[in-house]
């Protein structure tokens, strides 16, 4: 779509309000709404001014004037408002029109441009699988003398003894693919799929996931890097609004329930050039090309630092523990779901891809996808060999390996603080071609350390009272 197409859409759909979205550095949508009387071709071309000092990770108050510039290709009618409303995603510039290098969409654009300029490929395709929990109630509070959280779901295994219940609860780790009425969120997920389709988002399937307590997954059709990152933002927005309409709450938090599987965002990806898939080779391991193997080596080599962007919450590392199909092992495999990279089985060249299983949806998708791509391209440029580097293939059950065998397998960082330290020491591959600026990387590390790692580390944990109160 072009600007004139947006103007035409506004007329055809009798739009009364236009919602302009930007994404902050951590990865949350922010928006401003203009009545349609204030939206014309100039507005859609030159953009809307805003205060960058009020957006997380952006500028200080002394240089806060910024502009959000609409991307006409993202315009879609928003079904969640009482009056006809158009939604548009924006890029961020300074008042002189210079692209802002901390704008996550700019990073994604930079990554796509760098890929083409490299000559290695001209297109990358991305297919994230976002997992989430649907809760009936959510309560939490944090004060100096008092802290708690509580989530509940009718199908949660802890409700099996509830008076008046019907026995339709799911035991831990037994939630994969049950039918209704045991799957009590089926109809809500169907409503979410229909709303996603209204947004123009192509959905492949939906199903209950492994954990008890309302865990689900809705799978997206693959798309290019920037557009898929946009889609992830739209996806989270749609699911939250549909859940709210039904009196439910949804979270992509990696580990909201102790003792059961957490929420991941498995990221399928592939490279193409001139309409030809580059990851396929009939004679290679798992039918992967040498180029794909180099790409895998790049991702795994940089994984300890990469996770600071793909798993950027303190809660991310509650999920990354052995025993819950958690992809904690820095190896690749044809079918092992505890490996960081799994190669899906296929005989179709166009379906040849790798699946990076470690990420979760607390990540900013623009930064996460761009960072994964840059790590893979670094492996291709350096012709890294994942086998020689000791990354596998690991086609055995890792949980059945001996201690001696496990000693030779690398694991992901144990905390966000550790991942940030790794990123501090290893990020030259991100700044190649100015895809990520040094300023953005340092801002990310400082922001995460001060506002998340330190905040969590300074507070007593409820379990510490059980362990130490009477010590």
Automatic annotation (TrEMBL):
<dbReference type="GO" id="GO:0005524">
    <property type="term" value="F:ATP binding"/>
</dbReference>
<feature type="binding site">
    <location>
        <begin position="261"/>
        <end position="262"/>
    </location>
    <ligand>
        <name>L-glutamate</name>
    </ligand>
</feature>
<feature type="binding site">
    <location>
        <position position="209"/>
    </location>
    <ligand>
        <name>Mg(2+)</name>
    </ligand>
</feature>
<dbReference type="InterPro" id="IPR008146">
    <property type="entry name" value="Gln_synth_cat_dom"/>
</dbReference>
<keyword id="KW-0067">ATP-binding</keyword>
<dbReference type="GO" id="GO:0046872">
    <property type="term" value="F:metal ion binding"/>
</dbReference>
<dbReference type="Pfam" id="PF03951">
    <property type="entry name" value="Gln-synt_N"/>
</dbReference>
<comment type="similarity">
    <text>Belongs to the glutamine synthetase family.</text>
</comment>
<dbReference type="GO" id="GO:0004356">
    <property type="term" value="F:glutamine synthetase activity"/>
</dbReference>
<feature type="binding site">
    <location>
        <position position="217"/>
    </location>
    <ligand>
        <name>Mg(2+)</name>
    </ligand>
</feature>
<dbReference type="GO" id="GO:0016020">
    <property type="term" value="C:membrane"/>
</dbReference>
<feature type="binding site">
    <location>
        <position position="350"/>
    </location>
    <ligand>
        <name>ATP</name>
    </ligand>
</feature>
<feature type="binding site">
    <location>
        <begin position="268"/>
        <end position="270"/>
    </location>
    <ligand>
        <name>ATP</name>
    </ligand>
</feature>
<feature type="binding site">
    <location>
        <position position="355"/>
    </location>
    <ligand>
        <name>Mg(2+)</name>
    </ligand>
</feature>
<keyword id="KW-0597">Phosphoprotein</keyword>
<keyword id="KW-0547">Nucleotide-binding</keyword>
<dbReference type="GO" id="GO:0006542">
    <property type="term" value="P:glutamine biosynthetic process"/>
</dbReference>
<feature type="binding site">
    <location>
        <position position="319"/>
    </location>
    <ligand>
        <name>L-glutamate</name>
    </ligand>
</feature>
<dbReference type="InterPro" id="IPR036651">
    <property type="entry name" value="Gln_synt_N_sf"/>
</dbReference>
<dbReference type="Pfam" id="PF00120">
    <property type="entry name" value="Gln-synt_C"/>
</dbReference>
<feature type="binding site">
    <location>
        <position position="337"/>
    </location>
    <ligand>
        <name>L-glutamate</name>
    </ligand>
</feature>
<feature type="modified residue" description="O-AMP-tyrosine">
    <location>
        <position position="399"/>
    </location>
</feature>
<dbReference type="GO" id="GO:0019740">
    <property type="term" value="P:nitrogen utilization"/>
</dbReference>
<dbReference type="InterPro" id="IPR014746">
    <property type="entry name" value="Gln_synth/guanido_kin_cat_dom"/>
</dbReference>
<keyword id="KW-0963">Cytoplasm</keyword>
<dbReference type="InterPro" id="IPR027303">
    <property type="entry name" value="Gln_synth_gly_rich_site"/>
</dbReference>
<feature type="binding site">
    <location>
        <position position="129"/>
    </location>
    <ligand>
        <name>Mg(2+)</name>
    </ligand>
</feature>
<feature type="binding site">
    <location>
        <position position="266"/>
    </location>
    <ligand>
        <name>Mg(2+)</name>
    </ligand>
</feature>
<dbReference type="InterPro" id="IPR027302">
    <property type="entry name" value="Gln_synth_N_conserv_site"/>
</dbReference>
<feature type="binding site">
    <location>
        <position position="325"/>
    </location>
    <ligand>
        <name>L-glutamate</name>
    </ligand>
</feature>
<dbReference type="InterPro" id="IPR004809">
    <property type="entry name" value="Gln_synth_I"/>
</dbReference>
<protein>
    <recommendedName>
        <fullName>Glutamine synthetase</fullName>
        <ecNumber>6.3.1.2</ecNumber>
    </recommendedName>
</protein>
<feature type="domain" description="GS catalytic">
    <location>
        <begin position="104"/>
        <end position="471"/>
    </location>
</feature>
<feature type="binding site">
    <location>
        <position position="131"/>
    </location>
    <ligand>
        <name>Mg(2+)</name>
    </ligand>
</feature>
<feature type="binding site">
    <location>
        <position position="204"/>
    </location>
    <ligand>
        <name>ATP</name>
    </ligand>
</feature>
<feature type="domain" description="GS beta-grasp">
    <location>
        <begin position="13"/>
        <end position="97"/>
    </location>
</feature>
<keyword id="KW-0436">Ligase</keyword>
<keyword id="KW-0460">Magnesium</keyword>
<feature type="binding site">
    <location>
        <position position="337"/>
    </location>
    <ligand>
        <name>ATP</name>
    </ligand>
</feature>
<feature type="binding site">
    <location>
        <position position="357"/>
    </location>
    <ligand>
        <name>L-glutamate</name>
    </ligand>
</feature>
<dbReference type="GO" id="GO:0005737">
    <property type="term" value="C:cytoplasm"/>
</dbReference>
<keyword id="KW-0479">Metal-binding</keyword>
């Amino acid at each position: 779509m072009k600007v004139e197409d947006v103007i035409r859409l506004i007329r055809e759909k009798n739009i009364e309000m236009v919602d302009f979205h930007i994404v902050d550095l951590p990865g949350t949508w922010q928006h401003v709404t203009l009545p349609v009387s204030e939206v014309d071709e100039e507005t859609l071309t030159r953009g809307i001014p805003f205060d960058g000092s009020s957006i997380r990770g952006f500028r200080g108050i002394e240089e806060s004037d910024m502009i959000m510039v609409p991307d006409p290709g993202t315009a879609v009618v928003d079904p969640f408002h009482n009056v006809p409303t158009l939604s548009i995603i924006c890029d961020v510039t300074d008042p002189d029109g210079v692209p802002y290098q901390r704008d996550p969409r700019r990073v994604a654009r930079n990554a796509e441009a760098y890929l083409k300029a490299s000559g290695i490929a001209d297109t990358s395709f991305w297919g994230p699988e976002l997992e989430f929990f649907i809760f009936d109630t959510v309560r939490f509070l944090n004060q100096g003398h008092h802290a708690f959280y509580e989530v509940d779901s009718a199908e949660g295994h802890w409700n099996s003894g509830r008076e008046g219940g019907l026995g339709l609860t799911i035991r831990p780790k037994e939630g994969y693919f049950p039918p209704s009425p045991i799957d009590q969120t089926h109809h809500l997920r169907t409503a979410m799929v229909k709303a996603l389709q209204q947004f123009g988002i192509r959905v492949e399937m939906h199903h209950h996931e492994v954990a008890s307590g309302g865990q689900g997954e809705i799978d997206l059709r693959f798309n290019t890097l920037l557009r898929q990152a946009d889609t992830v933002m739209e996806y989270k927005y749609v699911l939250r609004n549909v859940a709210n309409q039904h009196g439910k709450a949804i979270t992509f938090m990696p580990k909201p329930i102790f003792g059961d599987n957490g929420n991941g965002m498995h990221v399928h990806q592939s490279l193409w050039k001139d309409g030809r898939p580059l990851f396929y080779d009939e004679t290679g391991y798992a039918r992967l090309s040498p180029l794909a193997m180099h790409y895998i080596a790049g991702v795994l080599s940089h994984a300890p630092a990469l996770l600071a962007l793909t798993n950027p919450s303190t809660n991310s590392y509650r999920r990354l523990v052995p025993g819950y199909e958690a992809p904690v092992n820095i190896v690749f495999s044809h079918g092992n779901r505890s490996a960081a990279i799994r190669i899906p089985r296929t005989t179709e060249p166009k379906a040849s891809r790798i699946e990076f299983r470690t990420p979760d949806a607390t990540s900013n998708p623009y930064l996460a996808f761009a960072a994964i791509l840059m790590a893979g391209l670094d492996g291709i440029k350096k012709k890294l060999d994942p086998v020689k580097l000791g990354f596998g293939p690991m086609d055995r059950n890792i949980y059945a390996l001996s201690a001696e065998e496990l000693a030779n397998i690398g694991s992901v960082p144990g905390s966000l603080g550790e991942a940030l330290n790794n990123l501090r020491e290893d990020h030259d591959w991100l700044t190649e071609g100015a895809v990520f600026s040094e300023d953005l990387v340092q801002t990310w590390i400082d922001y995460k350390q001060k506002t998340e790692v330190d905040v969590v580390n300074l507070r007593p944990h409820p379990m510490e009272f059980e362990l130490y109160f009477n010590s």
